[in-house]
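Whiteboard transcription, Tuesday session. T.W. wrote the structure tokens on the left side:
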């Protein structure tokens, strides 16, 4: 039976000076696991929500079916309205998912 792996824990002030890439330390000051990448401590914190400047997580957008009618050779006002309605529906779902900014 393999020995269980123990991760060193301590406060930010107690974080060790290490040279081993992949060394793990649980920072009790922040409550976040950190890994030494050879240059700096890399946080294993959850990925943040995406915003205009930060890449991150987004929610899966709700399904958006094809509700617009098939256009004829010459667009009618009702066809244009149905296309605009479908686009507005899609934009609302993308905003709710955090993919499109408000």
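and on the right, the sequence the group agreed on:
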């Amino acid at each position: 039976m393999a020995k269980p792996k123990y991760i060193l824990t301590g406060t930010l002030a107690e974080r060790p000076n290490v040279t081993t890439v992949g060394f793990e330390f649980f920072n009790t000051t922040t409550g976040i696991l950190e890994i030494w990448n050879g240059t700096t401590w890399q946080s294993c914190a959850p990925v943040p929500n995406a915003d205009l400047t930060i890449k991150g997580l987004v929610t899966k957008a709700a399904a958006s079916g094809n509700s617009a009618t098939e256009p004829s050779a010459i667009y009618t006002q009702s066809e244009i309205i149905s296309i605009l309605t479908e686009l507005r529906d899609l934009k609302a779902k993308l905003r709710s998912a955090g993919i499109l900014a408000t």
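Someone added at the bottom: Residues 66 and 102 are 23 Å apart (CA to CA).
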